[in-house]
Here is the input.
Amino acid sequence: MNNDLVKGELSADQQNAVMGLINQIQNLLPFLIDLNADERRALPKLGDKSRAFVDQGLYWPCKIPAFCRAVSIWTNISAT
Here is the structure.
């Protein structure tokens, strides 16, 4: 079975363009930090039970029109 599902090549110009865009993103989001392995392991996990809780937290406020606009932003984010 072949595990190489994606094949592609980037030219030097394309690589430079991508790296430039990544640098722009990093400059626009200066508050992002790097976490080491221990810090990542210590973060809470989103399992089946907590996922259902979050989904309900996004679903029910939309039943109240005043909250719908604010929650729709998070609904779009959580769908990705």
